[in-house]
Specification:
This protein has about 160 residues and is α+β, with helices and mostly antiparallel strands. The chain contains five helices and seven strands; from the N terminus they run H-H-H-E-E-E-E-E-H-E-E-H.
Length: about 160
């Protein structure tokens, strides 16, 4: 009986040793984990971004559009910055993308630059900060884009976040 009990215990130890590293997770470098944690703590939220834009006097109206750009698997939060009574062709928009990290935001911008090559289109003003990418769709020409109606206010909002 004693021999059988010891044999069972040994078999349990052997089996638990064989299956101990079968979690399916790759080992993570502690420095990478700390970097990711710090980066996520510094991430901005949609609420912070919209509050900053509103503080600069930009009145924003949520738009439910299904045809906005998807960048690096992130959907935009799209806002009209024109009054709801303005005709559709005269409206200007702000698309706010909230990515999981700055790296993901950079990949999102690369994705946008790659996708827009296929089209002859109006180029939005692009603003980047931390994990946020903002596209301001205005009606100015490319040469005059810095004079777009809300350009300065968006720049000020980003600086104050």
């Amino acid at each position: 009986m004693k021999k059988m009990m010891i044999t069972l215990i040994v078999i349990c130890f052997i089996l638990s040793g064989c299956f101990s590293n079968q979690t399916g997770n790759e080992p993570v470098n502690v420095n990478d984990k700390e970097k990711l944690l710090i980066e996520n703590e510094n991430n901005l939220t949609l609420d912070k971004v919209t509050a900053a834009l509103k503080t600069e006097g930009i009145e924003m109206f949520k738009e439910e559009l299904n045809n906005d750009w998807i960048l690096n698997n992130v959907h935009a939060n799209r806002f009209s910055v024109s009054r709801p009574t303005v005709k559709e062709v005269y409206k200007e928009y702000i698309s706010v993308y909230i990515f999981n990290s700055e790296t993901a935001r950079r990949e999102g911008l690369n994705d946008f630059n790659h996708q827009k090559e296929k089209y002859d289109m109006q180029i939005p003003n692009i603003y980047q900060y931390k994990n946020v990418l903002i596209l301001y769709w205005h009606h100015e020409t490319v040469d005059n884009s810095k004079n777009a109606k809300f350009n300065k206010q968006i720049e000020m909002a980003i600086q104050k976040i």
